[in-house]
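Q: A reviewer asked whether we had any structural model of the full assembly, not just the individual parts. We don't, so I'm hoping you can provide one. Inputs are below.
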Amino acid sequence: METLIFWHRRDLRINDNAGLYKALTSKGKVQPVFIFDSNILQHLPPNDQRVLFIYQQIIALKESYQAHGADLIVLYGDPKAMIPSLVEELNASAVFTNRDYEPYAHERDSYLFDLLIAKNVSFTGAKDHVIFEKNEVLKNDGLPYTIFTPYMRKWKETLTDFYLKAYPTEKYFSNLKQTTNKTSIPTLEAMGFDGKQTVDFPKNQTPLSIIANYHETRDIPSVNGTSRLSVHLRFGTISIRSLAKQAMETNEKYFNELIWRDFYQMIMVHFPHSLTGAFRKEYDHINWEFNETQFEAWKSGNTGYPLVDAGMRELNATGHMHNRVRMVVASFFTKHLLHDWRLGERYFAEKLLDFELASNVGGWQWAAGCGCDAAPYFRVFNPTSQQEKFDPQFTYIKKWVPEFGTSAYAQPIVEHKWARERVLARYKEALKQA
DNA sequence: TTTTGAGTTGTTCGA
DNA sequence: GTCGAACAACTCAAA
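A: Here is a predicted structure for the entire assembly that you could use as a starting point for your response.
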Protein backbone atom coordinates (compact mmCIF):
# COMPACT_ATOMS: atom_id res chain seq x y z
CA MET A 1 0.00 0.00 0.00
CA GLU A 2 1.35 3.42 -0.94
CA THR A 3 2.12 6.05 1.65
CA LEU A 4 0.86 9.60 1.21
CA ILE A 5 2.12 12.47 3.31
CA PHE A 6 -0.21 15.18 4.55
CA TRP A 7 1.70 18.27 5.64
CA HIS A 8 -0.05 20.52 8.17
CA ARG A 9 0.93 24.19 8.22
CA ARG A 10 -1.72 26.77 9.09
CA ASP A 11 -4.52 24.23 9.30
CA LEU A 12 -4.07 22.57 12.70
CA ARG A 13 -7.27 20.51 12.78
CA ILE A 14 -8.43 17.17 11.43
CA ASN A 15 -12.09 17.99 10.82
CA ASP A 16 -13.26 19.87 7.72
CA ASN A 17 -9.73 20.09 6.35
CA ALA A 18 -9.63 20.37 2.54
CA GLY A 19 -6.11 19.09 1.93
CA LEU A 20 -6.42 16.28 4.43
CA TYR A 21 -9.68 15.25 2.75
CA LYS A 22 -7.94 15.19 -0.61
CA ALA A 23 -5.21 12.96 0.81
CA LEU A 24 -7.62 10.63 2.63
CA THR A 25 -9.71 10.10 -0.48
CA SER A 26 -6.67 9.29 -2.62
CA LYS A 27 -5.23 5.82 -3.06
CA GLY A 28 -2.88 5.02 -0.18
CA LYS A 29 -2.44 5.45 3.54
CA VAL A 30 -2.00 8.95 4.92
CA GLN A 31 0.84 9.90 7.25
CA PRO A 32 0.38 13.41 8.69
CA VAL A 33 3.35 15.63 9.54
CA PHE A 34 4.03 19.06 11.00
CA ILE A 35 7.35 20.88 10.86
CA PHE A 36 8.39 23.67 13.20
CA ASP A 37 10.14 25.83 10.61
CA SER A 38 13.58 26.80 11.89
CA ASN A 39 13.84 29.55 9.24
CA ILE A 40 10.97 31.35 10.96
CA LEU A 41 11.49 30.28 14.57
CA GLN A 42 15.12 31.31 14.80
CA HIS A 43 14.13 34.98 14.48
CA LEU A 44 11.60 34.89 17.30
CA PRO A 45 12.23 35.78 20.96
CA PRO A 46 12.29 32.91 23.53
CA ASN A 47 8.98 34.02 25.02
CA ASP A 48 7.07 34.16 21.70
CA GLN A 49 3.50 33.30 22.62
CA ARG A 50 2.45 32.24 19.14
CA VAL A 51 4.95 29.41 19.13
CA LEU A 52 3.56 28.29 22.46
CA PHE A 53 0.04 28.51 21.06
CA ILE A 54 1.02 26.38 18.07
CA TYR A 55 2.82 23.94 20.35
CA GLN A 56 -0.29 23.37 22.42
CA GLN A 57 -2.38 22.92 19.29
CA ILE A 58 0.13 20.41 17.91
CA ILE A 59 -0.12 18.35 21.08
CA ALA A 60 -3.91 18.34 20.74
CA LEU A 61 -3.69 17.51 17.04
CA LYS A 62 -1.37 14.60 17.73
CA GLU A 63 -3.81 13.27 20.32
CA SER A 64 -6.64 13.52 17.77
CA TYR A 65 -4.69 11.40 15.33
CA GLN A 66 -3.75 8.90 18.03
CA ALA A 67 -7.41 8.52 18.90
CA HIS A 68 -7.81 7.15 15.37
CA GLY A 69 -4.91 4.75 15.65
CA ALA A 70 -2.54 7.00 13.74
CA ASP A 71 0.25 9.40 14.69
CA LEU A 72 1.36 12.92 13.78
CA ILE A 73 5.07 13.19 13.03
CA VAL A 74 6.41 16.47 14.41
CA LEU A 75 9.80 17.76 13.28
CA TYR A 76 11.98 20.84 13.70
CA GLY A 77 14.10 22.19 10.84
CA ASP A 78 14.05 23.52 7.29
CA PRO A 79 11.04 22.11 5.42
CA LYS A 80 12.92 22.34 2.13
CA ALA A 81 15.23 19.63 3.45
CA MET A 82 12.90 17.76 5.77
CA ILE A 83 10.01 17.08 3.41
CA PRO A 84 12.23 15.39 0.79
CA SER A 85 13.98 13.29 3.42
CA LEU A 86 10.67 12.25 4.97
CA VAL A 87 9.40 11.31 1.51
CA GLU A 88 12.44 9.11 1.12
CA GLU A 89 12.22 7.60 4.58
CA LEU A 90 8.55 6.66 4.17
CA ASN A 91 8.90 5.89 0.49
CA ALA A 92 5.91 8.16 -0.08
CA SER A 93 4.40 8.64 -3.51
CA ALA A 94 2.66 11.95 -2.88
CA VAL A 95 2.58 14.98 -0.59
CA PHE A 96 -0.63 16.86 0.11
CA THR A 97 -0.99 20.21 1.86
CA ASN A 98 -3.16 23.32 2.07
CA ARG A 99 -2.02 26.37 0.18
CA ASP A 100 -0.38 29.27 2.00
CA TYR A 101 -0.34 32.53 0.05
CA GLU A 102 2.49 34.45 1.70
CA PRO A 103 5.58 35.05 -0.45
CA TYR A 104 7.88 32.99 1.82
CA ALA A 105 5.51 30.02 1.72
CA HIS A 106 4.95 30.32 -2.00
CA GLU A 107 8.67 30.28 -2.73
CA ARG A 108 9.20 27.31 -0.40
CA ASP A 109 6.35 25.34 -1.93
CA SER A 110 7.33 25.93 -5.54
CA TYR A 111 10.87 24.83 -4.69
CA LEU A 112 9.49 21.62 -3.18
CA PHE A 113 7.08 21.09 -6.05
CA ASP A 114 9.92 21.14 -8.59
CA LEU A 115 12.14 18.97 -6.45
CA LEU A 116 9.49 16.33 -5.76
CA ILE A 117 8.17 16.20 -9.31
CA ALA A 118 11.70 15.41 -10.47
CA LYS A 119 11.55 12.39 -8.16
CA ASN A 120 8.16 11.41 -9.52
CA VAL A 121 6.44 12.39 -6.27
CA SER A 122 3.37 14.59 -6.63
CA PHE A 123 2.89 17.69 -4.50
CA THR A 124 -0.73 18.80 -4.30
CA GLY A 125 -2.13 21.90 -2.67
CA ALA A 126 -5.72 22.55 -1.61
CA LYS A 127 -7.73 25.65 -0.84
CA ASP A 128 -8.49 25.70 2.85
CA HIS A 129 -7.42 29.04 4.32
CA VAL A 130 -9.91 31.20 2.39
CA ILE A 131 -13.33 30.87 0.80
CA PHE A 132 -12.20 32.34 -2.54
CA GLU A 133 -8.69 32.41 -3.88
CA LYS A 134 -7.12 35.16 -5.93
CA ASN A 135 -8.76 34.39 -9.26
CA GLU A 136 -12.16 33.20 -8.13
CA VAL A 137 -13.63 36.67 -7.64
CA LEU A 138 -12.60 38.97 -10.48
CA LYS A 139 -14.04 42.02 -12.20
CA ASN A 140 -15.95 41.49 -15.42
CA ASP A 141 -12.82 42.40 -17.38
CA GLY A 142 -10.93 39.56 -15.69
CA LEU A 143 -8.71 41.76 -13.55
CA PRO A 144 -8.59 41.72 -9.73
CA TYR A 145 -10.60 44.13 -7.63
CA THR A 146 -8.91 46.85 -5.63
CA ILE A 147 -12.03 48.30 -3.99
CA PHE A 148 -13.70 46.35 -1.24
CA THR A 149 -17.41 47.04 -1.78
CA PRO A 150 -17.69 45.83 -5.40
CA TYR A 151 -15.42 42.90 -4.47
CA MET A 152 -17.71 42.02 -1.59
CA ARG A 153 -20.79 42.16 -3.85
CA LYS A 154 -19.19 39.88 -6.43
CA TRP A 155 -17.93 37.58 -3.64
CA LYS A 156 -21.49 37.19 -2.37
CA GLU A 157 -22.85 36.67 -5.90
CA THR A 158 -20.29 33.94 -6.46
CA LEU A 159 -20.97 32.17 -3.17
CA THR A 160 -23.00 28.97 -3.22
CA ASP A 161 -23.55 26.26 -0.58
CA PHE A 162 -20.76 24.33 -2.23
CA TYR A 163 -18.10 26.76 -0.97
CA LEU A 164 -19.22 26.53 2.66
CA LYS A 165 -19.69 22.79 2.79
CA ALA A 166 -17.54 20.96 5.31
CA TYR A 167 -15.12 18.36 3.99
CA PRO A 168 -16.19 15.13 5.75
CA THR A 169 -12.71 13.97 6.67
CA GLU A 170 -14.12 11.91 9.54
CA LYS A 171 -15.61 9.41 7.10
CA TYR A 172 -12.15 8.49 5.89
CA PHE A 173 -10.03 8.30 9.04
CA SER A 174 -9.60 4.58 8.34
CA ASN A 175 -7.28 5.68 5.53
CA LEU A 176 -4.84 7.14 8.01
CA LYS A 177 -1.66 5.14 8.28
CA GLN A 178 -2.17 3.00 11.38
CA THR A 179 0.63 2.76 13.90
CA THR A 180 1.21 2.12 17.58
CA ASN A 181 4.51 3.94 17.38
CA LYS A 182 4.19 7.25 19.26
CA THR A 183 6.87 9.58 17.94
CA SER A 184 8.11 12.37 20.19
CA ILE A 185 7.68 16.12 19.73
CA PRO A 186 10.78 18.34 19.81
CA THR A 187 10.82 20.24 23.09
CA LEU A 188 10.27 23.99 23.16
CA GLU A 189 13.59 24.35 24.96
CA ALA A 190 15.40 22.53 22.15
CA MET A 191 13.85 24.96 19.68
CA GLY A 192 14.94 27.99 21.72
CA PHE A 193 11.77 28.87 23.63
CA ASP A 194 11.13 29.16 27.34
CA GLY A 195 7.62 27.72 27.20
CA LYS A 196 6.19 30.21 29.69
CA GLN A 197 2.64 31.23 28.92
CA THR A 198 2.16 34.91 29.74
CA VAL A 199 -1.10 35.61 27.90
CA ASP A 200 -4.48 33.91 27.66
CA PHE A 201 -5.27 32.06 24.48
CA PRO A 202 -8.82 32.65 23.21
CA LYS A 203 -11.11 29.65 22.84
CA ASN A 204 -11.80 28.36 19.35
CA GLN A 205 -15.51 28.92 19.69
CA THR A 206 -17.57 31.91 20.65
CA PRO A 207 -21.07 32.36 22.04
CA LEU A 208 -23.45 32.91 19.14
CA SER A 209 -24.69 36.06 20.91
CA ILE A 210 -21.35 37.76 20.31
CA ILE A 211 -21.64 37.28 16.56
CA ALA A 212 -25.33 38.16 16.65
CA ASN A 213 -24.71 41.47 18.44
CA TYR A 214 -21.41 42.19 16.73
CA HIS A 215 -22.65 45.22 14.76
CA GLU A 216 -23.74 46.93 17.98
CA THR A 217 -20.93 46.07 20.35
CA ARG A 218 -17.86 45.69 18.20
CA ASP A 219 -16.78 49.32 18.56
CA ILE A 220 -16.84 49.46 22.34
CA PRO A 221 -13.47 48.27 23.63
CA SER A 222 -14.70 47.86 27.20
CA VAL A 223 -17.33 45.37 26.05
CA ASN A 224 -16.60 41.77 25.18
CA GLY A 225 -18.13 42.30 21.73
CA THR A 226 -15.66 40.63 19.39
CA SER A 227 -15.28 36.90 18.83
CA ARG A 228 -11.49 36.68 19.33
CA LEU A 229 -11.44 33.94 16.71
CA SER A 230 -8.79 35.58 14.52
CA VAL A 231 -5.95 33.56 16.03
CA HIS A 232 -7.86 30.37 15.29
CA LEU A 233 -8.41 31.41 11.70
CA ARG A 234 -4.73 32.24 11.46
CA PHE A 235 -3.61 28.76 12.52
CA GLY A 236 -6.57 26.86 11.16
CA THR A 237 -7.85 25.60 14.49
CA ILE A 238 -11.26 26.63 13.21
CA SER A 239 -12.54 26.17 9.66
CA ILE A 240 -13.24 29.37 7.73
CA ARG A 241 -16.07 27.55 5.98
CA SER A 242 -17.92 26.67 9.17
CA LEU A 243 -17.42 30.17 10.60
CA ALA A 244 -18.51 31.88 7.37
CA LYS A 245 -21.61 29.73 7.26
CA GLN A 246 -22.48 30.68 10.82
CA ALA A 247 -21.76 34.35 10.13
CA MET A 248 -23.86 34.40 6.98
CA GLU A 249 -26.83 33.15 8.93
CA THR A 250 -26.27 35.40 11.92
CA ASN A 251 -24.73 38.80 11.28
CA GLU A 252 -23.90 40.57 8.05
CA LYS A 253 -21.34 42.93 9.56
CA TYR A 254 -19.40 40.02 10.98
CA PHE A 255 -19.75 38.13 7.69
CA ASN A 256 -18.29 41.12 5.87
CA GLU A 257 -15.26 41.07 8.14
CA LEU A 258 -14.53 37.56 6.94
CA ILE A 259 -14.79 38.81 3.37
CA TRP A 260 -12.21 41.50 4.23
CA ARG A 261 -9.92 38.66 5.17
CA ASP A 262 -10.30 37.06 1.73
CA PHE A 263 -9.92 40.50 0.12
CA TYR A 264 -6.55 41.20 1.72
CA GLN A 265 -5.27 37.69 0.97
CA MET A 266 -6.20 38.31 -2.67
CA ILE A 267 -4.55 41.75 -2.66
CA MET A 268 -1.35 40.26 -1.22
CA VAL A 269 -1.13 37.71 -4.02
CA HIS A 270 -1.89 40.09 -6.87
CA PHE A 271 0.00 43.12 -5.54
CA PRO A 272 2.97 41.78 -3.57
CA HIS A 273 4.70 45.18 -3.73
CA SER A 274 2.14 46.34 -1.16
CA LEU A 275 3.83 44.20 1.51
CA THR A 276 6.90 46.42 1.49
CA GLY A 277 5.74 49.71 -0.02
CA ALA A 278 2.62 51.79 -0.46
CA PHE A 279 -0.10 50.12 -2.54
CA ARG A 280 -0.50 53.51 -4.23
CA LYS A 281 3.03 54.31 -5.20
CA GLU A 282 2.58 58.08 -5.03
CA TYR A 283 2.46 57.70 -1.24
CA ASP A 284 6.01 56.39 -1.22
CA HIS A 285 7.06 60.05 -1.49
CA ILE A 286 5.97 60.90 2.06
CA ASN A 287 8.82 62.35 4.05
CA TRP A 288 8.37 60.45 7.32
CA GLU A 289 9.63 61.65 10.68
CA PHE A 290 11.57 59.40 13.00
CA ASN A 291 12.02 60.07 16.69
CA GLU A 292 13.23 57.26 18.94
CA THR A 293 11.68 58.79 22.08
CA GLN A 294 8.28 59.14 20.45
CA PHE A 295 8.49 55.67 18.95
CA GLU A 296 9.23 54.22 22.39
CA ALA A 297 6.44 56.26 23.99
CA TRP A 298 4.00 54.86 21.43
CA LYS A 299 5.18 51.28 21.87
CA SER A 300 5.02 51.37 25.67
CA GLY A 301 1.75 53.31 25.86
CA ASN A 302 3.02 56.62 27.19
CA THR A 303 1.89 59.11 24.59
CA GLY A 304 -0.37 61.10 26.90
CA TYR A 305 -3.41 60.15 24.80
CA PRO A 306 -5.23 57.66 27.03
CA LEU A 307 -7.03 55.64 24.37
CA VAL A 308 -3.80 55.19 22.42
CA ASP A 309 -1.93 54.24 25.58
CA ALA A 310 -4.60 51.81 26.74
CA GLY A 311 -4.51 50.07 23.38
CA MET A 312 -0.74 49.70 23.30
CA ARG A 313 -0.67 48.43 26.86
CA GLU A 314 -3.40 45.92 26.09
CA LEU A 315 -1.32 44.73 23.14
CA ASN A 316 1.87 44.44 25.20
CA ALA A 317 0.13 42.62 28.02
CA THR A 318 -2.15 40.27 26.10
CA GLY A 319 -0.97 39.97 22.48
CA HIS A 320 -4.33 41.34 21.48
CA MET A 321 -5.83 44.78 20.83
CA HIS A 322 -9.44 45.68 20.27
CA ASN A 323 -10.17 46.43 16.62
CA ARG A 324 -11.43 49.98 17.14
CA VAL A 325 -8.33 50.81 19.13
CA ARG A 326 -6.04 49.29 16.49
CA MET A 327 -7.29 51.97 14.12
CA VAL A 328 -6.79 54.71 16.66
CA VAL A 329 -3.20 53.76 17.53
CA ALA A 330 -2.30 53.22 13.87
CA SER A 331 -3.75 56.56 12.88
CA PHE A 332 -1.93 58.25 15.76
CA PHE A 333 1.35 56.61 14.75
CA THR A 334 1.18 57.51 11.07
CA LYS A 335 -0.68 60.81 11.25
CA HIS A 336 0.15 62.42 14.59
CA LEU A 337 3.70 61.11 14.91
CA LEU A 338 4.14 60.99 11.11
CA HIS A 339 6.09 57.76 11.44
CA ASP A 340 6.41 55.27 8.58
CA TRP A 341 3.48 52.82 8.70
CA ARG A 342 5.90 49.93 8.12
CA LEU A 343 7.48 50.45 11.55
CA GLY A 344 4.11 50.25 13.24
CA GLU A 345 3.15 47.27 11.10
CA ARG A 346 6.32 45.44 12.21
CA TYR A 347 5.60 46.17 15.87
CA PHE A 348 2.11 44.67 15.52
CA ALA A 349 3.70 41.71 13.71
CA GLU A 350 5.91 41.04 16.71
CA LYS A 351 3.19 41.39 19.31
CA LEU A 352 -0.13 40.22 17.90
CA LEU A 353 -1.13 36.65 18.65
CA ASP A 354 -3.50 36.82 15.67
CA PHE A 355 -0.92 38.39 13.36
CA GLU A 356 -1.78 37.73 9.73
CA LEU A 357 0.55 39.41 7.26
CA ALA A 358 -1.98 40.30 4.57
CA SER A 359 -4.56 41.72 6.99
CA ASN A 360 -1.98 43.56 9.08
CA VAL A 361 -0.41 45.30 6.10
CA GLY A 362 -3.84 46.03 4.67
CA GLY A 363 -5.03 47.57 7.90
CA TRP A 364 -1.94 49.70 8.37
CA GLN A 365 -2.07 50.98 4.82
CA TRP A 366 -5.73 51.76 5.32
CA ALA A 367 -4.88 53.82 8.40
CA ALA A 368 -1.95 55.54 6.72
CA GLY A 369 -4.14 56.40 3.75
CA CYS A 370 -1.77 54.80 1.23
CA GLY A 371 -3.54 51.47 0.68
CA CYS A 372 -6.09 50.18 -1.77
CA ASP A 373 -9.45 51.58 -0.82
CA ALA A 374 -7.89 53.41 2.11
CA ALA A 375 -9.33 56.15 4.26
CA PRO A 376 -8.62 59.50 2.55
CA TYR A 377 -5.44 60.92 4.01
CA PHE A 378 -7.16 64.01 5.37
CA ARG A 379 -9.30 61.81 7.57
CA VAL A 380 -7.23 62.15 10.73
CA PHE A 381 -8.67 60.40 13.78
CA ASN A 382 -8.92 62.68 16.79
CA PRO A 383 -7.81 60.44 19.69
CA THR A 384 -9.81 62.49 22.16
CA SER A 385 -13.09 62.39 20.28
CA GLN A 386 -12.56 58.67 19.60
CA GLN A 387 -12.30 58.21 23.36
CA GLU A 388 -15.44 60.28 23.94
CA LYS A 389 -17.36 58.21 21.40
CA PHE A 390 -16.13 54.72 22.20
CA ASP A 391 -14.97 54.78 25.82
CA PRO A 392 -16.98 57.64 27.33
CA GLN A 393 -16.83 56.26 30.88
CA PHE A 394 -13.06 55.62 30.63
CA THR A 395 -13.77 51.97 31.48
CA TYR A 396 -11.29 50.52 29.02
CA ILE A 397 -8.77 53.25 29.74
CA LYS A 398 -8.85 52.76 33.52
CA LYS A 399 -8.31 49.06 33.04
CA TRP A 400 -5.07 49.54 31.14
CA VAL A 401 -3.85 52.94 32.30
CA PRO A 402 -4.46 52.95 36.06
CA GLU A 403 -2.51 56.17 36.60
CA PHE A 404 -4.75 58.06 34.16
CA GLY A 405 -6.14 61.16 35.86
CA THR A 406 -3.27 61.44 38.33
CA SER A 407 -0.12 63.55 38.12
CA ALA A 408 1.81 60.37 37.23
CA TYR A 409 0.18 60.20 33.80
CA ALA A 410 2.20 61.34 30.78
CA GLN A 411 1.67 64.72 29.12
CA PRO A 412 0.65 64.51 25.42
CA ILE A 413 3.81 64.05 23.34
CA VAL A 414 2.29 65.98 20.44
CA GLU A 415 -0.44 68.57 20.30
CA HIS A 416 -3.41 67.43 18.25
CA LYS A 417 -4.17 70.52 16.19
CA TRP A 418 -0.51 71.10 15.36
CA ALA A 419 0.04 67.45 14.42
CA ARG A 420 -3.06 67.40 12.25
CA GLU A 421 -1.96 70.43 10.28
CA ARG A 422 1.56 69.05 9.95
CA VAL A 423 0.44 65.72 8.49
CA LEU A 424 -2.03 67.31 6.08
CA ALA A 425 0.71 69.58 4.74
CA ARG A 426 3.24 66.73 4.53
CA TYR A 427 0.94 64.42 2.60
CA LYS A 428 -0.09 67.20 0.28
CA GLU A 429 3.53 67.92 -0.47
CA ALA A 430 4.23 64.23 -1.19
CA LEU A 431 1.30 63.91 -3.57
CA LYS A 432 2.29 67.06 -5.41
CA GLN A 433 5.71 65.49 -6.06
CA ALA A 434 4.24 62.30 -7.46
C1' DT B 1 -15.98 54.84 -25.50
C1' DT B 2 -18.23 57.56 -22.38
C1' DT B 3 -20.82 58.34 -18.51
C1' DT B 4 -22.34 57.75 -13.96
C1' DG B 5 -22.30 56.73 -9.25
C1' DA B 6 -19.75 55.38 -5.55
C1' DG B 7 -16.00 54.64 -2.30
C1' DT B 8 -15.33 50.53 6.10
C1' DT B 9 -14.84 52.61 10.55
C1' DG B 10 -13.80 60.82 10.49
C1' DT B 11 -13.16 65.74 11.88
C1' DT B 12 -13.80 70.53 11.72
C1' DC B 13 -16.03 74.69 10.84
C1' DG B 14 -19.58 77.76 10.46
C1' DA B 15 -24.45 78.73 10.01
C1' DG C 1 -26.83 71.48 20.31
C1' DT C 2 -27.46 70.26 15.39
C1' DC C 3 -26.68 70.09 10.65
C1' DG C 4 -24.47 70.21 6.17
C1' DA C 5 -20.49 71.12 3.73
C1' DA C 6 -15.63 70.96 3.12
C1' DC C 7 -11.67 68.32 3.37
C1' DA C 8 -9.41 66.88 -2.58
C1' DA C 9 -10.07 65.39 -6.13
C1' DC C 10 -9.42 60.75 -8.04
C1' DT C 11 -10.08 56.30 -9.49
C1' DC C 12 -12.70 52.38 -9.75
C1' DA C 13 -16.32 49.41 -11.71
C1' DA C 14 -20.08 48.68 -14.38
C1' DA C 15 -23.70 50.17 -17.40
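A: Points you may want to mention in the reply: The beta strands of chain A are 3-8, 29-37, 73-77, 92-98, 122-126. The two ends of chain A are 63 Å apart (CA to CA).
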